[in-house]
UniProtKB/TrEMBL annotation, chain A:
Its main location: other. The keyword Acyltransferase does not apply. The keyword Endoplasmic reticulum does not apply. This is Calcium and integrin-binding protein 1. Keywords: Angiogenesis, Calcium, Differentiation, Integrin, Lipoprotein, Magnesium, Metal-binding, Myristate, Repeat, Spermatogenesis. Gene3D superfamilies: EF-hand. Residues 144-179 form the EF-hand domain.
From TrEMBL, chain B:
It is found in: Membrane. Residues 478-584 form the TMC domain. Belongs to the TMC family. It comes from Pipistrellus kuhlii. The lineage of its organism: Eukaryota, Metazoa, Chordata, Craniata, Vertebrata. This is Transmembrane channel-like protein. InterPro entries: TMC (IPR038900), TMC_dom (IPR012496). GO terms for molecular function: mechanosensitive monoatomic ion channel activity.
Length: 187, 760
């Protein structure tokens, strides 16, 4: 292809191409987006695999994420230490999963982790309350919120243990075909 | 150490037994949060180094990692099983404390024999971090090169194949990069999605998809039919006035735009050079366009059905769907706030519906509702029939009317009336919604759609009938060109009306909504009505391609302009939708519509034209033939005289021309469909059984927990002084856990054995 890029080695780009759903051009474009977030922090030469993390505060200012109610959870799920600070790998991973080419199972897995606020591998009542609060931003009363959470558990909890496991979640997603198109961030 | 055994058991259960067990295990660990739950994970630390965590700390890196590694092994089974069933291997591998590494090795082993394409797909679909995927890829490559080094001499052929597949993959990547760079309107779609959400975006995606059809049709017809005609050329006797763009007549009549201009000769530029039979080219080109459209429609429809199967049995007033399907494409601050408000409203409505659900309607209320529905249906059908009758009457008298009128603009009367009907009647139908009440709001959308479809299809049907039965046999000078011109005028008038609607109608509605009657507010984009208009236009284009080969080009320009007009109008005059619109289901339905009444109608019209109608005697590529199809018959006859093409003649006579072949083909297709249907039914039953089983296992779990807690109580009461009498595992922070885990594990194991044995 056209211009020779000096950011990654050929091997690195091949690896990125094989491990994400992006083409080479898109990976380069994403790299420049990442670099734009923190130009002093992110070097223009990744051939030596520098260990650089862009802090969450800067990630959260991206126009694609800035107003999303779940931006903090998204950054936490995809970051290495769960604190929201992302390396380039995490960044590419995040947008790869949220792209339109990722399959439903993969998206469901990560959606489950995003909605699992306390990271216990189950969406329990507390997680649901947090989700509903973030979604409705104070429009619902506390009573309505708990009613909603109970209803959700009623509908989706297959084995009736009072919380949603990954399988319950995936089963429910099967019945919501819109999930694939809504769990999608275009970059 | 007992903790190790426990760890081992944990690992076995995760890897070997279906996931119901896993739930059980983790539930025992997490539900009694007062017991030092997370400290139990401290004993799992033989897998990875972790400190004992405080239960109050929500996210601890290593805690997550341990759970992740345990989960990954089971997920590996899930993902690798779905990709490559034969390689999942023996589930009952003996346990070691390195369970996760075991899982990874199994994954690598399953990845190695895959083709490189499948391998990359499997690696991409792994829910792992980039670093892990990279390591996986390197290890697989290393293993693969080790293996291939061993069998190098024997399989230089497979090396060839490998390099070919690598080259193919690289070229596919380059091609997809090129295509994505050419991909139209990416930024605009992102902005629309950001402000209005996925549902409105689906309309614009549909428009873009239809544009692709027209581009392909245009390229095919232009290169195979129009360009050869340019080389031959012809005379144009008409003067050019500006009115041609509207009427499509006069100057345009004698151009490549219409059927009548094309020659019926065999084009040959140099003697001895290749000859180009225009007749065959024309009919084969149009057939090729239709076949390409047919297959792309079929495949798109199949793909949408597979992903978004509309199963009426699973319909639930899903509040879970509202909660978990937040639209991540919305990126504008105001739009997000609005969406949150709308979501709250919808949730409240949903909750109140549940509370009201028990209220049954009285008989008289039922009857009233039914009679209102019936009245609405009668009125709508009556209106549609009246409109069709009006169109028919106008069309019938159109020919004499036109002869008596001198003004060329008179030809625009019929398109004008049709466009007015298409504009006014759907809006009239929408007003029925004020009177009719539906229990399920989705029913309302579907009923409205069906009424609109009925109207539009009837109008097209009447027009086709008029063209094929009245215009064609009327012995006009060049009836195919006449039909081409009429279709052109219809399309153009439709386009003009859409523009007027967007610029004037929607603008006025916004002014009224914001200045005069502020309670109305801004309107919402009516996706269904707009998509139906697109489908209507596309149907006309497909019918008209035979009579006017440049029609796909015109439609291309139309769609291009419509995109920008709708975009601007959307941003100025509309607000984001307030209700959740099931975009994927609706899209499936629309593509099905595009296929079923629309495209099949086009195919039948074409079939009638080609088999039943007599081409005009003085113009076009088929002049002089008794029927259009005779061009093919003549070609086959000429081929049967030359010895090298007897196979074509054979195929034609025995496969296409014979009834037996189609009969047998239909029979085979029916048998296969029946078999697939039976398999689907069987799977539905299996799903129901498995679902019941999951519920039963949940109940078992609860029962066991109660029983064991009772045991614990009786123990405590029996021996109040000693803390841990019979419990051998003193260091074990959760002896209760261990015991109930073992008992539960036995039960689970027994149950899973029972499960597997009937399957075996």
């Amino acid at each position: 292809m056209g211009n020779k890029q000096t950011v990654f080695t050929h091997e690195q780009l091949e690896e990125y191409q094989d491990c994400t759903f992006f083409t080479r051009k898109e990976i380069m474009r994403l790299f420049y987006r990442y670099q734009d977030l923190a130009p002093q922090l992110v070097p223009l030469d990744y051939t030596s695999c520098p260990d650089v993390k862009v802090p969450y505060e800067l990630i959260g200012t991206m126009p694609e994420l800035k107003d999303n109610p779940f931006r903090q959870r998204i950054a936490q799920v995809f970051s290495e230490d769960g604190d929201g600070h992302m390396t380039l790998d995490n960044f590419l991973d995040m947008f790869s999963v949220m792209s339109e080419m990722a399959p439903r199972d993969l998206k469901a897995y990560y959606a489950f982790k995003i909605y699992d606020f306390n990271n216990d591998d189950y969406i329990c009542m507390w997680d649901l309350e947090q989700t509903v609060t973030k979604l409705t931003r104070g429009e619902l009363s506390a009573e309505e919120v708990s009613l909603v959470c109970e209803k959700v558990l009623d509908e989706a909890d297959g084995d009736h243990d009072g919380r949603l496991s990954l399988e319950d979640f995936q089963n429910m997603i099967l019945r919501a075909p819109d999930f694939l198109s809504t769990f999608h961030i275009r970059i | 150490m007992l903790s190790d055994d426990q760890v081992n058991e944990t690992v076995i259960n995760v890897e070997t037994v279906p996931s119901g067990v896993q739930n059980h295990l983790s539930s025992n660990m997490n539900v009694p949060a007062k017991l030092a739950v997370n400290s139990r994970f401290g004993t799992v630390s033989s897998i990875s180094d972790i400190e004992v965590t405080d239960p109050q700390v929500f996210s601890h890196q290593n805690d997550r990692r341990a759970k992740q590694s345990v989960r990954f092994s089971s997920l590996n089974e899930m993902f690798s099983r779905s990709h490559h069933s034969s390689d999942s291997g023996d589930m009952d591998t003996p346990c070691t404390s390195r369970g996760s590494i075991q899982g990874r090795q199994k994954l690598i082993a399953s990845l190695i024999p895959m083709t490189s394409r499948d391998r990359i797909k499997a690696i991409r679909n792994q829910p792992r971090t980039m670093e892990e995927k990279r390591k996986l890829r390197r290890m697989v490559d290393k293993e693969k090169s080790k293996q291939s080094r061993r069998i190098f001499e024997l399989n230089c052929c497979s090396q060839c194949l490998n390099s070919i597949s690598l080259a193919y993959r690289r070229s596919k990547n380059i091609l997809s990069e090129l295509l994505s760079s050419v991909s139209l309107w990416q930024k605009t779609l992102k902005i629309i999605g950001g402000k209005f959400g996925t549902s409105v975006l689906s309309y614009f995606n549909f428009l873009r998809w239809l544009l692709k059809f027209n581009v392909i049709s245009f390229i095919v017809t232009f290169s195979f039919v129009t360009i050869p005609q340019f080389t031959v050329g012809g005379n144009n006797t008409f003067p050019f006035t500006g009115l041609e763009f509207f009427t499509g007549a006069d100057y345009f009549t004698d151009t490549v735009m219409y059927y009548g201009f094309y020659t019926n000769s065999t084009i040959q530029h140099r003697s001895g050079g290749t000859s180009y039979n225009m007749q065959l080219a024309y009919i084969f080109t149009v057939a090729a366009c239709l076949i390409i459209c047919f297959f792309s429609l079929l495949f798109s429809m199949a793909r949408y059905f597979r992903n978004n199967f509309i199963n009426p049995h699973i319909y639930s007033r899903g509040i879970a769907k509202l909660i978990f399907c937040w639209d991540f494409t919305i990126t504008h601050e105001k739009a997000v706030k609005l969406k949150q408000k709308n979501l709250s409203t919808e949730i409240k409505e949903n909750l109140s519906e549940i509370l009201q659900e028990n209220g049954k309607l009285t008989l008289s209320q039922h009857l009233t509702r039914l009679s209102v529905h019936l009245a609405a249906w009668v009125v709508s059908t009556g209106m549609a029939t009246a409109c069709c009758a009006a169109v028919y009457y106008l069309a019938e008298n159109n020919l004499e009317f036109l002869k008596s009128q001198k003004n060329p603009g008179a030809t625009l009367l019929l398109p004008f009336v049709v466009s007015c009907i298409n504009l006014a009647v759907p809006r009239f139908y929408s007003m029925f919604g004020l009177v009719e009440h539906y229990e399920i709001p989705r029913q309302e959308v579907y009923v409205l759609l069906i009424r609109n479809i009925f109207l539009k299809i009837s109008i097209i049907g009447i027009l086709c009938y008029y063209w094929l039965n009245i215009v064609a046999p009327a012995d006009e000078k060049c009836w195919e060109t006449v039909i081409g011109q009429e279709i052109y005028r219809l399309l153009l008038m439709d386009f003009v009306f859409s523009l007027a609607d967007s610029f004037l109608g929607e603008f006025l509605r916004r002014v009224i909504g914001t200045r005069f009657i502020t309670s109305l507010g801004l309107q919402e984009f009516d996706i269904a009505r707009n998509v139906l208009e697109l489908i209507y236009a596309q149907t006309l284009v497909w019918i008209g391609t035979f009579f006017c080969p440049l029609l796909p080009f015109i439609q291309m320009i139309t769609l291009f302009i419509m995109f920008y007009v709708k975009n601007i109008s959307l941003r100025m005059n509309f607000q984001p939708p307030s209700k959740a619109w099931r975009a994927s289901q609706m899209m499936t339905f629309f593509i099905f519509l595009l296929f079923f009444p629309s495209f099949t109608g086009v195919l039948s019209t074409m079939a009638i034209t080609i088999w039943r109608l007599k081409p005009s005697a003085n113009c076009g590529p088929f002049r002089g033939l008794p029927f259009f199809i005779y061009s093919i018959y003549g070609w086959i006859d000429s081929l049967s005289n030359s010895p090298s093409y007897t196979w074509v003649v054979w195929i034609y006579q025995n496969l296409i021309g014979s009834v037996h072949f189609f009969f047998i083909l239909t029979l085979i297709v029916l048998i296969i469909t029946y078999l697939y249907w039976q398999i689907t039914e069987g799977r539905k039953v299996m799903i129901k059984l498995l679902h019941e089983q999951i519920i039963n296992e949940g109940k078992d779990k609860m029962f066991l927990i109660e029983k064991l807690s009772k045991l614990q109580d009786t123990d405590k009461r029996a021996n109040p002084s000693s803390l841990t009498p019979e419990r051998t595992d003193v260091e074990e922070p959760g002896p209760l856990y261990g015991r109930e885990h073992e008992a539960a594990h036995d039960l689970r194991f027994r149950r899973s054995v029972q499960e597997h044995s009937p399957k075996a």
